[in-house]
Amino acid sequence: MRIQLLMLYLLTGLGTGAYAQEMWGAAPGNYAGQMGIDLNPASIADAPYRWEIHFVSLDASILNNYMYLKGDSRLIRKSVKGESVEEDKFTDRYTRNPDKFAYGSAFLKYPAFIWSGKKLSAAFHVSTRAELSASKVPYHLAKYLKEGFDYNPQQNTNYAVRNLRAGLLTWHEFGVTIAGVLHDSKEYFWTGGVTLNYNYGLTGVYVRLDDADYILPADTLLIVNNIQAEYGHALPDNGTRGSNDPLAKRGKGYSFTAGVQFFKNRNEAFFNPCKRNNGEKPYDYRLGVSLMDIGYLHYTEGTRTYLFDNRNTAWFGIDTVKFDDWVTTDSILSEQFYGNSRSSRDQRSMRMVLPAAASVQLDVPFNENVFLNLSILQRIPFGPYSLRRANQVALTPRYESRHFEISMPFSFYEQFRPRIGLGLRFGILTIGTDMISPLLGITDSYGADLYFGLAWRSFKGCDGSGSGRGRRPNIENCKTPK
Q1: What share of the chain is helix, strand, coil (3-state, %, to 5)?
Q2: How distant, in Å, are the alpha carbons of 44, 135, 266 from that of 29?
Q3: What is the pLDDT of residues 22-35, one digit of tens each?
Q4: Number of H helices, E strands in the chain
Q5: Which helix (H) or strand (E) holds 333?
């Protein structure tokens, strides 16, 4: 039952990669480049590198509070040996409270570029992104989606669903970033930046279940006393006006990310390789504020939305219905609730809002190499058709230099189970995870996360190398590099 599986993926987050693209083990650093520009585009203004050639980066992860992998599953060890994990190691958290949620995102960023000047900086990128969110999923509905309608302990009980929201988006993103120094003084230093994106829509799905009351007296009978719901989709198998090509354009939209950074007592020597290696702190502290993913996607090609306005039904034989594709599913649901296979059709287009958020980042150095970063991210829901981002708090100690960085983020998502990660940057390679427990099998895992990137940076060296490597520069003969 392909549709039931997709709904389970939407409502519990089992089928996609990713809960966030923040990459707390990499993004807050002074050398993050393209791997930090999505957190705050002001970070590239007067950076400690002249330019960056970004070859590729990837982030893929998942977070939910319902399905989990037991800590003693030995997933990595068995995968290396070619063995499978026992089915009972992957189970659910069947609790009445809280409601279940899932948050996901994944991105693949292609070759990109940053040029960082003294007053003005610029960058561009192209990436493919996927975002998922589901919220207010009651435990009984999650259980039925996992076990099927023959889960006897829940039969003959009236259940209610209120304000459930779920959505899935995939798109190509083409972005240009402009950043610069807003104010430059010895004590107060301000930078600002904005990224403007054109979004090429690939696929989209949303589900709104505002109100529903139902009961299953038996495996074969579903009684819906009332339902107020709406859903829509723009997918490869939508039938008329749609394309079976998953990379076909089905919509478009625009978005932006903007931010500012404030440095207290910024030490230019840290950002100027002609004056480095003096052991001084780069600043007393750095404070950043940003708005992320403010925008939308408007789908028109192969798009359908369906509305069920205060309907009810007694559905006999629900356990034998075949939801093989979206066209069939749309017709079956409309026939069951309206008595006509087309009566639930509403619109041929849909507009979905990206998972917007506001973020604050505080970075405190102890010396030239040791830092502590505190970042807070709060979602901004823009109406009933917006995807939701996970609220997050991350505390990240790190050691960084031009060519080496190691960090260990402690992050807390949706007030549910803190996580420990590990990030490493060595030369052109950055790799890490914000959730290391699934890799080690230490604790029960409600998600997984992995990111990596390849980028080469020029450090404006004064020794003729152009990269900042080689002998220590002669400061007296140095020219101002920017």
Answers
A1: 15, 50, 35
A2: 11, 32, 15
A3: 899 999 999 999 99
A4: 6, 22
A5: helix 326-338
